[in-house]
């Protein structure tokens, strides 16, 4: 135990000595060694101090890029995205420009939240990867960037699905409907917009189910003057669902809704 403490104390002493030195070439080489051995906190501390000093030298590009990679490797993705962006802006034709452009998106990707939360970072990550592919159409990381784009778009789709489902689950609760309308209408609009925005989503069936159920429930809870039109709309939606997804598990629900809709329309005609 004493030996470990002594070793750590010695390492700390050495780092402090390097940090305070005016021999910037030595400090730079030591920072590179820290980075190579995974001592990212030490590397970040030294490189942050060095980027201004190294500006205009042949080490400037590597210094800034290595700082960004150290931040990324250390899990500080927000700082990494900012530093990669700084590198790319400062050295758009630099040796590491293409990789820096990719890692702007990758850093943002790593910091995106779960679908239930605000997806502004996800939108920013998509924009960054799209810019990377636009600038470097034959990029070495093209496949990885495209895969990330699919994953990020799926996250946006999931966010829309969770929003639509929340509106449906709120149902007849009007406490959140401060500007008219109701939750079933909001569920329908949210789901339909998602289908239009993401036509190839693997959640198409789930959105379709929410639309169908929401239209039926909307008709059921409507005032009398609107019921007939809404029941007819719900019935059409059910038929459309069966035609598009004839073998889907919710077919029985659609058929049940059709019968309920017909019961109402038949009653009105009589």
How would you concisely characterize the structure shown here?
This protein is mainly alpha-helical and 270 residues long. It has helices spanning 2-20, 24-36, 40-53, 60-73, 77-90, 97-110, 120-135, 142-170, 183-197, 204-221, 224-244, 251-269.
Structure in words:
The termini are far apart. The chain has 12 helices and no strands. α2 runs antiparallel to α3 and α5 runs antiparallel to α6. It is elongated. It is mostly helical and 270 residues long.
Topology:
Blueprint: H1 2-20, H2 24-36, H3 40-53, H4 60-73, H5 77-90, H6 97-110, H7 120-135, H8 142-170, H9 183-197, H10 204-221, H11 224-244, H12 251-269
Mean pLDDT: 90
Portion in helices: over 70%
| Radius of gyration (Å) | 29 Å
Using the alpha-carbon principal axes, give the shape. Answer: elongated
Assembly type of the chains comes to single chain
| Strand-residue proportion | under 5%
Point out poorly predicted stretches: 2-9
Distance between the termini: 92 Å
What is the succession of H and E elements?
A: HHHHHHHHHHHH
Report the biggest beta sheet as strand number plus sense, adding barrel if it closes: none
Give the number of DSSP strands: 0
């Amino acid at each position: 135990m004493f030996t470990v403490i002594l070793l750590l104390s010695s390492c700390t002493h050495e780092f402090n000595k390097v940090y305070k030195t005016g021999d910037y070439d030595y400090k730079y080489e030591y920072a590179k060694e820290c980075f190579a051995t995974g001592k990212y906190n030490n590397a970040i501390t030294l490189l942050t101090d060095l980027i201004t000093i190294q500006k205009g030298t042949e080490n400037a590009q590597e210094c800034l890029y290595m700082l960004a990679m150290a931040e990324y490797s250390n899990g500080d993705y927000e700082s990494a995205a900012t530093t990669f962006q700084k590198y790319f802006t400062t050295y758009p034709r630099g040796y590491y420009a293409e990789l820096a452009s990719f890692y702007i998106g990758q850093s943002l990707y790593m910091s995106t939240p779960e679908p239930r939360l605000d997806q502004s970072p996800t939108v920013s990550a998509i924009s960054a990867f799209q810019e990377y592919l636009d600038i470097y159409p034959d990029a070495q990381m093209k496949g990885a960037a495209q895969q990330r784009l699919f994953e990020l778009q799926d996250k946006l789709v999931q966010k829309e699905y969770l929003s639509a489902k929340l509106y449906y689950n709120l149902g007849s609760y009007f406490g959140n409907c401060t500007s008219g309308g109701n939750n079933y209408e909001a569920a329908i609009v949210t789901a339909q917009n998602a289908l239009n925005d993401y036509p190839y989503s693997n959640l198409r069936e789930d959105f379709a189910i929410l639309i169908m159920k929401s239209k039926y429930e909307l008709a059921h809870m409507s005032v009398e003057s609107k019921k007939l039109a809404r029941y007819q709309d719900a019935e059409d939606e059910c038929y459309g669902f069966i035609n598009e997804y004839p073998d889907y598990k919710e077919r029985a629900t659609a058929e049940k809704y059709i019968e309920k809709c017909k019961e109402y329309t038949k009653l009105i005609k009589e």
